[in-house]
Design goal:
CATH class: Mainly Beta
Radius of gyration: 17 Å
Strand order of the largest sheet: 1-2-3-10-5-8
Number of helices: 0
CATH topology: Jelly Rolls
Largest sheet: 6 strands, antiparallel
Distance between the termini: 60 Å
Helix content: under 10%
Number of domains: 1
Structural class: mainly beta
Strand content: 35-45%
Mean pLDDT: 93
Amino acid sequence: MTRQDLPRQHQPDEEKFRAILPEDIAWQPFPAFPPGAKLAVMVGHPSEPGPYLVRVKVPGGTKLMPHKHPEDRIYTVMSGVFYIGLGESFDGDKVKAYPPGSVVVLPGETWHFHWAKSGEYVTQVSAIGPLGLEYHDDNDDPRLHATMP
């Protein structure tokens, strides 16, 4: 039996042709993000094992304090300028600016922080799930400080 004879399994959400137009993107609040920041699941199921593709939209001035993800990630800057710094404490002098079209490779378990320093940015994140996010300081984690309605 050759490789061509084996049935090929499709990845989640990749079993048929489809397109997602910008106006069809379903932006949603994400509990691990500060208020105003949004996430859109483009392909896959980030909470499950397997590949996924999400977009993240962060309003100008917003800071995502030091955090890490267990999964390796590839960020593509879609719009705005993406400022990212490495380390366990936020330092605005250590962020580097990445314009649209930039690709940033972030190994899993790397402490980092983001800042929408010059206005809103949108990044596209490709990774193998499940997605995880751990803040260095619990006081920075919006999930631990959400108020009940």
